[in-house]
Amino acid sequence: MTHSLLRVVQAGPLALVVDGGRFGVRHLGVTQGGAADWVSFHWANWLLGNALDAAALEIVLGGGLTLEVEQDATLALAGADLDARLDDRPLAPGTTFAVMAGQRLSFHQPRDGLRAYLAVPGGLATPVVLGSRSATPREQLGGPRGDGSALGDGDRLEWNPCQVRGRRLPFGSAQGVTLRGNQLALVPGAQIGHFSGTSLYRAFNATWRIDTRADRMGVRLLGPELRCRLGSMVSEGIPMGAVQVPPDGQPIVLLNDRQTIGGYPRLGALTPLAAARLAQCLPGKEVGLMAISRERALASYRSCLEAFR
Question: Which residues belong to any copy of the Carboxyltransferase domain (predicted)?
Fold first, then answer.
């Protein structure tokens, strides 16, 4: 039996229900969705002893999101510092905290990072659509009403009562690894040999700036113009973190809510950890691309997963 836990007093600019993602449906044209910074999302659930892919809230920018507590509980917060407060008490990312009925939890302006994750015991009990609770607004799937919408004023978030196992993060930084550093590791792809030598030098030696045209579908990088000798391509499947280069020569990194196929040549794809790091970058932040081998990327990913054991 579910119980009301939180009521949305004021919806921020974008707060979504997310989980580990929607898989096995790309042949239907349905993208994966899920937490953009999967590392911080995992830590939020880990702090409560939840399954790592349990549904939680992804809160972008803060923007005045205000939630009223309707039942005593223990919650966890990880990811960006969005100046979260319980009534007037500041809340640090990377912690668990007790809430009591009648208190208000609010998020304000970003201090560090872009996306915060709020986890509840056992995960949010929203409708499962095509195997996932994640909201993907473009496809109108998942979320509180099953139609992909973000939180709205008056919405109620429910959970299934369970025992909480409170934990502390096993490292010093409260925000975790995805908010540190500006290098984005990339595994080169099949079309990389079609880019000019000058373009490849620029790609991996220039500084790129995050454009304002950035969302859960993709992030445009502003910098030197890249040129590819490859003409038209047959559209092909697009993996998470794919770095496409359209005719204007400015790379676009495709993220969780990306289209499932595309026809622009690609430098390659960001590693899972790099994609999570990019999801925390505010517009205007400067980043760099660093080519690494598939083997090194896989080892890094496995090492990251080991931390959650």
Answer: 27-308
- What's the pTM? 0.94
Per domain, the residue ranges of the chain are 3-177, 181-306
Cα–Cα distance, 37 to 29 (Å, whole number): 23
Per-residue pLDDT 10s for the chain (309 aa) are 556 689 999 998 889 999 999 999 999 999 999 999 999 999 999 999 999 999 999 999 988 899 999 989 999 999 999 999 999 899 999 999 999 999 999 999 999 999 999 999 999 999 999 999 999 999 999 999 999 999 999 999 998 777 777 787 876 544 455 666 789 999 999 999 999 999 999 999 999 999 998 999 999 999 999 999 987 788 899 999 999 999 999 999 999 999 999 999 999 999 999 999 999 999 999 999 999 999 999 999 998 898 888
CB 86 within 8 A of CB 103: yes
Instruction: Specify the DSSP class assigned to residue 286.
Output: E
Q: Which two tokens stand for residue 279?
A: 């999801």
Structural class in CATH, domain 181-306: mainly beta
Sign of CA dihedral 220, 225, 230, 232: positive
Cβ count within 10 A of residue 138:
14
Strands 183-188 and 286-291 turn out to be parallel
- Cα 33 to Cα 35: distance, rounded to the nearest angstrom: 7
